[in-house]
């Protein structure tokens, strides 16, 4: 991939200029949407936008008395660059989904096989007949999460997961981290390898994504001053270690969260999927299996969701958001992609606001229409 002008990418430079300015504005003021942001947008083999704004580390802590961050002196702050890694949070789910579809392509995993066929010790999932497809489409009926971070040890965590039955109606959409956690355990059982190894050997290493890995990740953008009662654990200001409390409790490698990456690396990931599973000499999936991954309702990927895809939604755009402030959208119809990496939880989490994500995606959609 190469950086080039919007015109060479077949995109309207005026719309992209507005996109860049609006992203920069997200880091301005005393209470910005995010302390720091990286945006990468492209079409075909061309990266048309690669910009950074704000701070990777702006605050030393959060003060609940003033409901504000305690700022570092300007000389001690760390600026964001286009090479800054971010905690991807739930964007990790996309990599778990690709790793699963790789096993489906190889015939070692059945799309409609029951989880109990692979994990008979997960007796609740086995008893209720949860399938691999249901895990990938969030239709298993499992609740959104469990308090694994409050368990005394791994044995207690695993006992809780093995005993967890669906609480919703199977076949009905309920977004759940537990789906991708169970999928992680399925993949590890059938391959005999940990998820981080599967992602490295099957996705990031072949694609040359050298900045993408499970933590720890020194130099990453800081996330939250994680303390109760606003958080679920007392860990202090986090930087370079996973923000998600359950992923942390599981050692930092989890099917639903834990990866760190950069905008440029994620652009390669998007490019590979838009090109039918190949990038340069590397092939991570065949075209038919990429289509399976992205066809509505999507396997791991959300499809056509205007709340974060803006006007890119509607023709098969696919992607995901992450709680820390990250998002990724790829649009096969226009051969475009948009990556927004931000640390919106620095210095502490707030109610999610995806309007900036949708606005940025709309700018990219208009940049296509304006050419």
Walk me through what this model shows.
The chain is of the alpha+beta class and 371 residues long. Helix content is 33%, strand content 20%. Strands 1, 2, 3, 6, 14, 15, 16 and 17 form an 8-stranded mixed sheet that branches. The radius of gyration is 20 Å and the shape is globular. The mean pLDDT is 96.
Question: What's the short version?
Answer:
With 371 residues, the chain is α+β, with helices and mostly antiparallel strands.
| N to C succession of SSEs | EHEEEEEEHHHHHHHEEEHEHEEHEHEEEH
Indicate the proportion of strand residues.
Answer: 15-25%
Largest sheet: 8 strands, mixed
Low-confidence blocks of residues: none
Based on CA atoms alone, the radius of gyration comes out at 20 Å
Q: Structural class from helices and strands? A: alpha+beta
> How far is the N terminus from the C terminus?
21 Å
Tell me the total number of β-strands.
Answer: 17
The helicity comes to: 25-40%
Coarse shape: globular
Number of helices: 13
Summed over residues and divided by their number, the pLDDT gives a mean of: 96
Which helices and strands, and how do they pair?
Elements lengths: L1 E2 L9 H13 L10 E8 L2 E12 L1 E5 L4 E4 L6 E2 L6 E2 L4 H15 L8 H4 L4 H5 L4 H5 L17 H10 L13 H15 L3 H13 L5 E2 L7 E5 L9 E4 L5 H5 L9 E3 L1 H12 L3 E2 L2 E2 L3 H8 L7 E2 L2 H4 L8 E5 L3 E6 L4 E7 L12 H15 L2
Parallel strand pairs: 1-3
Antiparallel strand pairs: 2-3, 2-17, 3-6, 4-5, 7-11, 8-11, 9-10, 12-13, 14-15, 15-16, 16-17
Helix pairs in contact: 1-13, 2-7, 2-8, 2-11
